[in-house]
């Protein structure tokens, strides 16, 4: 295992699935010999806990269905390693926002009734920092949602972590929605709405805020659920994004996969998915209602967190900036000691990005920089 890999237990996040969902997810997928023990452990946990998941569903169904969103949600969009995590963590310091926690990201089916039973155990087992980039982790911290979607239904792009050889298939189905059936799409929308409602019931607040990189290609689909949703799109130097994404994916996937994937295949997948995600976002962003979208660069946010954040609030018509300002300042102050991984671009990176992502270099105005921090 890479020194930058997560050190996780034998089970995977799929253990948080109801067994019927897990069965649908893995049916027809190749599980290679070295990873069969991991799959058996994952299935066992899912099977043993599914009755409690059923209890949670019955006990909380009416409350979840009855929940109404007070305000239009905010979606933070951007490719992996573009600054979405930092922006999400920062905005979640504003108490008006409700969000998916790390705990809900893994155990969405144990959120409202059995959190007391599982959260402390998860807290003891999970690492305190992401090994790939030193970002702090905790069970109640804000988190992206795609693992939770995959534990509530089979319809998640993050199934690629388990079955990386099927990445392009998952991209076509759950990022582009080209190959998804009508019935599956209806289920996907219902699942996501339920996930967001449960997040609000769990964390409180009056406005849901989401950070989920796969959503970057889902503007059209999200607007079908939340027609007046607000969006923040953050982009970053594509050279940095490529090397950082490769480093993050190759460091994370060893603890999650049920089949092998080479670094070369991972590179090809990253190059392909980026083009599809950014291309679909650019094609669909005109669907967003006037005044409900702001675009910014990671470099702009990094240079002046507070000024950029204030611009986001003003552009999207969000209230309570001054009220939340002390919380923002406290968080920013705490991050001053955070050290990013330092890299120098490889010649291969320069060549691959220019060849495959040249459109993004032109679109966002980036040029070659010999040094980078990821």
Topology (elements, then pairings):
Blueprint: H1 19-26, H2 36-66, E1 74-77, H3 84-91, E2 97-98, H4 102-106, H5 115-125, H6 146-152, H7 159-162, H8 167-174, H9 182-203, E3 207-211, H10 219-225, E4 230-235, H11 238-252, H12 263-284, E5 293-297, H13 298-303, H14 305-316, H15 321-334, E6 342-344, H16 347-356, H17 358-364, E7 371-373
Helix pairs in contact: 11-12, 14-15
Report the top-level CATH class.
Answer: Alpha Beta
CATH architecture: 3-Layer(aba) Sandwich
Largest sheet at a glance?
5 strands, parallel
Q: Which fold name corresponds to the CATH topology?
A: Rossmann fold
* Distance between the first and last residues' Cα: 21 Å
Q: Work out the helix count.
A: 17
* Structural Rg: 20 Å
**If strands are numbered along the chain, what order do they take across the biggest sheet?**
2-3-1-4-5
Under CATH, the homologous superfamily reads: P-loop containing nucleotide triphosphate hydrolases
- N-to-C series of helices and strands: HHEHEHHHHHHEHEHHEHHHEHHE
Uncertain runs are 1-9, 370-374
Identify the overall geometry: globular
Q: Which range does the strand content fall in?
A: 5-15%
Number of individual domains: 1
Give the number of DSSP strands: 7
Average pLDDT score: 92
Query: What kind of assembly state do the chains in view correspond to?
Result: single chain
Helicity level: 40-55%
Q: In terms of structural class, how would the helical and strand content be classed? A: alpha/beta
């Amino acid at each position: 295992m890479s020194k930058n890999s997560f050190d996780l237990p034998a089970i995977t996040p799929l253990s948080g699935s109801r067994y019927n969902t897990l069965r649908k997810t893995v049916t027809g997928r190749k599980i290679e010999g070295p990873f069969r023990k991991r799959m058996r452990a994952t299935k066992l946990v899912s099977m043993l806990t599914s009755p409690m998941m059923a209890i949670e569903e019955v006990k909380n169904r009416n409350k979840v269905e009855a929940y109404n969103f007070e305000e239009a949600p905010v979606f933070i969009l951007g490719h992996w390693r573009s600054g979405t995590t930092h922006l999400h963590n920062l905005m979640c310091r504003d108490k008006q926002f409700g969000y998916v926690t790390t705990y809900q990201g893994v155990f969405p089916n144990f959120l409202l009734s059995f959190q007391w039973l599982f959260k402390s155990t998860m807290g003891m087992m999970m690492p305190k920092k992401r090994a790939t980039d030193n970002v702090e982790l905790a069970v109640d911290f804000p988190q992206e949602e795609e693992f939770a979607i995959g534990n509530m239904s089979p319809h998640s792009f993050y199934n690629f972590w388990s079955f990386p050889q099927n990445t392009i298939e998952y991209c076509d189905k759950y990022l582009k929605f080209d190959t998804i059936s009508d019935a599956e799409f209806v289920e996907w929308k219902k699942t996501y709405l339920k996930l967001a409602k449960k997040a609000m019931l769990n964390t409180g607040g009056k406005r849901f805020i989401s950070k989920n990189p796969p959503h970057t290609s889902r503007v059209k689909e999200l607007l079908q659920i939340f027609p007046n949703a607000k969006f923040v799109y953050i982009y970053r130097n594509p050279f940095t994004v490529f090397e950082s994404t490769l480093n993050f994916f190759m460091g994370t996937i060893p603890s999650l996969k049920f089949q092998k994937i080479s670094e070369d295949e991972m590179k090809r997948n990253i190059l392909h998915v980026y083009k599809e995600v950014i291309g679909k976002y650019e094609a669909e962003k005109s669907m967003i209602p006037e005044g409900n979208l702001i675009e910014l660069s990671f470099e702009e946010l990094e240079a002046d967190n507070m000024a950029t954040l204030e611009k986001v609030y003003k552009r999207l018509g969000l209230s309570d900036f001054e009220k939340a300002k002390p919380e923002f300042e406290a968080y920013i102050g705490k991050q001053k000691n955070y050290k990013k991984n330092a890299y120098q671009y490889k010649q291969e990176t320069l060549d691959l990005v220019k060849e495959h992502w040249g459109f993004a270099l032109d679109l966002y105005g980036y040029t070659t920089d010999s040094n980078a921090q990821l």
